[in-house]
Each structure stands twice: as C-alpha cells, then as structure tokens.
Specification:
By secondary structure, chain A is mostly beta strands. Chain A has strands spanning 4-7, 10-13, 19-25, 33-38, 45-49, 53-54, 62-67, 70-75, 85-90, 98-99, 103-107. Chain A contains no helices and eleven strands. In chain B, strands 2, 4, 5, 6, 9, 10 and 11 form a seven-stranded mixed beta sheet that branches. In chain B, strands 1-3-8-7 form a four-stranded antiparallel beta sheet, with no helix packed on it. The chains are: A mainly beta, B mainly beta.
Chain lengths: 108, 117
Amino acid sequence: DIQVTQSPSTLSAYVGDRVTITCRASQSISNLLAWYQLKPGKAPKLLIFDASKLESGAPSRFSGSGSGTEFTLTISSLQTDDFATYYCQQYSSYCPWTFGPGTRVEIK
Amino acid sequence: EVDLVESGGGLVQPGRSLRLSCEDYEFTFGNYIINWVRQAPGEGLEWLGFIRSKTDGGTTEYAASVKGRFAISRDDSRRIAYLQMNSLKAEDTGMYYCTRGHYSSGWGQGALVTVSS
C-alpha cells in the first residue's frame, strides 16, 4: 500500500502569512494527488486536484505543486477563513487510496 | 454547496448491520466513481472504498480495515449509491461521507454512525 505523510502536523501562522504544507507518498503517484480543506461541521472542500489544478470556486491564493513522491500546498496570503485542517489524498492506480494524516492551520 | 446527500446513519449495536444511502443530484452520476470516506471522532479522513462506473465494470475496491465487512453498490437509474456495513465494531463509529470522482469533487454533509451497546 502507498503510505502518505504530511508535515507539519500543526502550523501556527498570522493572517497574511505565506504557508506551505508538504505531502509525501511512499512511492511515485505521478500527479494523482488532491488537497482538501476541512472545517468542523462542514462538508470537506476540494481545493486542488492532479497536484496543481485549482478546483473551480477555490480561492486563487491556494496553489499546489509537485509530482512523483513530494507535493506541496501553498496559501499565498493566509486569510481568516483559511484556518482549518488540510488533507492530501493519493488516488493513483494503486489501491487502496490513502489520505495523509492532516495539517491543522491555527491562528498565531 | 452540497452535491450529495447521505442518509441512514444512527445508533447501532456492535455486530449489527446498517446501510447508508447516498443520493446524487448530478445528472451524470453514472459516469463517476463513487467513494465512501469516514472520519472517526477526533481523527482524520479514512478512505473506505469505491465503486467504478458501469462503463468501467462497476467493480469495487476497499480499504483493508473494512474489506469483507462493507460492500458498496449503486443504482444509476435512481442516482443512489449504498454502503452496506456488516459486523459493525465500536471503531466504525464516525461521520460517513460519499464523494464523487477520483479526486472527490463532490461531497455530502455526512451521515453519523455510532456503534455502541
């Protein structure tokens, strides 16, 4: 099975900061990685798919990059609405598909 | 924006069964993989499995944690997918979501399942 790790597990930042979250897969998954935002009591929201494509309706301050085994999600200027938990997920041709353990973004 | 609606959650005793439903309002429902994902209390997201479109064979894949106990099916004419959960355990407690597509572009609000005696 492909293992997916994320770092950091928790991130404290100020509004306006540029933040980066890293996701690593235990073997190459090409660009078959997505990023999601979770807030308590709300349905999860897709932000990025195919590693770098912005989902329709997602704010342009979110961007994704990477391929193979290492990927990043960047928020160019953190907004109050962005304080949430972020998960990456690989959906390669190798099942089972797996989520990373999550990164909680907190207000500093 | 909620694209899918899960139902059928509730309180169930260990060892019993429960079936969740997922109704999709997307007219092209039949073209998509439908996934089931859960979040246990205080935990992260866990992918449980998916069912392929009929065009791709309608076959299923499952996570090891639920393989042999859970089964996913679909009724494209009604735009509904199902998650049949058997031999439920306390650790199956959580919020269950259905999602549409390889990269889960559509999510429901979830169905809460509590397994407890």
